[in-house]
Hints:
This protein is mostly helical. The chain is built from five helices and two strands; from the N terminus they run ααααββα. A two-stranded antiparallel sheet has the order 1-2.
Amino acid sequence: MKIHKPDLPIRPIVNWCNAPAYKLAKLFTHKIQQLVPLPFAFNVKNTKHLILELKQTPLTSTSQFASLDISNMYSNIPIKETKLILEDILSHNTTDPQTINEISNWYDTITQQNYFTNNGNTILQKDGLAMGAPSSSIISEIFLQSLELFKF
């Protein structure tokens, strides 16, 4: 819960260790890291990394900086669009069709595991990625890097 942000909805973070697709999500993440080398061109790891990058960046009087903080990021990643982006990247990386099909099937299984129980009630998250799933960060990164590449 982000208690420092008043009037924002609570977003559940679910421990995925006991989820049916947990091992598949870990395998998917590992496989994607091998097949889809993401440059992370616009990301910083921490403040120290940011300062190092800024020191190495030539600045002019017209330089401008932008920082994007995405509200409720995981729950706003479009599942279907990101799957198409992933398949397109795999195709351009000359991944064989059988592997692309397997990765797509894994993707569907993982992204449909967006449910959790609370006080005996099963709650289904209809949109976006599950917070706490091992695959959510890599899937969101695929979408965000595509967005940065084609929209900015």
